Amino acid sequence: MWSLEQALGPWVVVGQSAASPTVAAAITVALAVVHSLAGRLWAGSDYRPRVLSAAGGASLAYVVVYLLPEINEAVLHVVESDAGSASFFGRDVEVYVVVLTGFLTFYAVHVFASRTTDGETDQTSVTFWAHLASFGVYNALIGYLVFHQERSGTTALVLYGVAMGLHFLVTDAGLRRHHGRTYHRLGRWLLAGAILLGGLVGTLTTVAEGPLALLLAFLAGGIVFNVTKEELPDPETSRFGSFVAGTVGYAAVLLAL
Prior knowledge:
- Helices cover 76% and strands 2% of the residues.
- The chain is built from eight helices and two strands.
């Protein structure tokens, strides 16, 4: 008899992997709400640039201090297990190629969007939908991974949820700057919906440890690029002190737990 397990193969199986499905569902909905309302938070306030810089620093701290070690630990387990010979990983360092791939993927999207905004194509049709498609996949992945963490427990879910919520403040600001009213009227709702869709898929499936590490690694690369993209190009709009405070503050929280 046909089954979803057979159709999806050994990488994906039917099931529920979140330590607390109720908490995971609540975090997914909260992330969608944050994304849809991010543009209204501190709108017009002199504190908004500081908040965005601190949010970017916190999400970067999550990747470097918490997520990358988590990924490396999972890959080491796969490499050292019997499944290692049949997996993508021959050595634990190979997962960082996926981190780099995530970084380069979103860099390519950014370059395309920047060039077409200069007048090569119609921004509202080509650039907008290219940006929306890439961030739709990105947001769906974030929603999916709410239900699939390498570390079990409510604490891991909350740390992830807080980091991604802060990260959405940063990505929303960049998309809003690129696409203005078009993004406000349509884009933010579609991207919030992508988070919920990813979460829905996450409730129906689980992934094996190796493929989960790949997904987390790709996400890590995307986060690193999107944070640096917002902070580095224009020192006048970024706030270095706030960025450092967000980075150090959230890193301290992660290390204390």
